[in-house]
Amino acid sequence: MYRWLILILAGFILWKLFTGDKKRKKAKETEEKDNLVATGEMVKDPMCGAFVSKDGDIRVREGDKVHYFCSYECRDKYVKMIQGDTTKAVSEADAPQKDA
What we know:
alpha+beta, 2 domains, two-stranded antiparallel ribbon
């Protein structure tokens, strides 16, 4: 009887140690990410809002500003959005003016 109690107690203690360790690791990763964002080493993807490293290879330069992306899909969506805005602006400039 006592053996089972000791075995169950030991199992419970081990379970608490492992689950507590996971929580501490998650909290530490979140804190490190927040520090990287605060120092400017990570920036927000303009399409999906994910935080990505400035060292990433997926980026688009728009004038003087450089945008960083988490994936090629987000980058392609952003490029299409920019091209759509440019096309719209050009077509509005070329349209004949109506006299009032």
